Amino acid sequence: TSFDFSGKRVVVTGAGRGIGRDLVIALVAAKAQVVAVSRTQAHLDSLAAQLGATAKASLQTVAVDLGDWDATRAALANLGPVDGLVNNAGVACLENFLEMTKEGLNTTLDVNLSGVLNVSQLVAQGMVKRGKGGSIVNVSSQASMAALASHTAYAASKAGVDMASRVMALELGKHNIRVNCVNPTVVLTDMSMHWLDPVKGGPMMSKIPLGRFAEVKEVVDAILFLLSDNAAMINAVTLPVDGGFLST
Ligand code: NDP
């Protein structure tokens, strides 16, 4: 990677698998100190093992259910100095609107929206107190801006993240804290394997001008850019990483 995060401490949520896990590995390679937050301790242990002994010195792990507001506050109470935050943890409870359940809706909003605001507020309070500014990147989705069947709760949560990020950016700008979103198209992780079904995935892929889904690395690179000082004047944007899907 060409990014240099030496001297920076970055919190990454949803670090156990998928995009978040590769992001942590890229950040450690770019010399960041990383606090990796995820629900399942075993996934964090396997991440630490993958990073190996030397890199492990750059990694701190916290296992918590980010859908639980109070447990999250308690788990992150003594976070220490933070320069960057990536709210990447997310769930996709896909249900047709007419069959949508209270549980599916609540879990989605608790993790994808309230969880993001909770961690962002905690981290931003620390950043303001410290007075050194900071960068927050929220992993949203193309589903915040384009209607996709069975995505009611997910889309509402991500659209909420997009707009909340703009308000956070508005209020936090005077503290030199930037808040941006990345909005990926389909990335083939555990969350999105259902898109491999050609009946579902084919029409989606055909609407992407580049004719393919996104690679995890392509999302990670966009996050690293917005997180870094290279993006010092970029604030309150929603950056599609979608091969052009949202433009059509
Ligand atoms: P994965 O399902 O591969 O990984 C999700 C990660 O989030 C896991 O590490 C999981 O923890 C963690 N997580 C989920 N719920 C909680 C919770 N309640 N508390 C703490 N951690 C939690 O998903 P992706 O890597 O694909 O997704 C990452 C982000 O990208 C999400 O916000 C998603 O909405 C977004 N996105 C994904 C797309 C895709 O096609 N994959 C497209 C557009 C956006 P654990 O390992 O413990 O289960």
From TrEMBL:
Keywords: NADP, Oxidoreductase
SUPFAM superfamilies given in the database record: NAD(P)-binding Rossmann-fold domains
GO MF term list: carbonyl reductase (NADPH) activity; L-xylulose reductase (NADPH) activity
Superkingdom in the source lineage: Eukaryota
Membrane among keywords: no
Membrane-crossing residue ranges in chain numbering: none
Gene3D superfamilies: NAD(P)-binding Rossmann-like Domain
Domain Ketoreductase: 8-198
Entry's Gene Ontology BP terms: glucose metabolic process; xylulose metabolic process
Quaternary data: Homotetramer.
Family: Belongs to the short-chain dehydrogenases/reductases (SDR) family.
Protein name: L-xylulose reductase
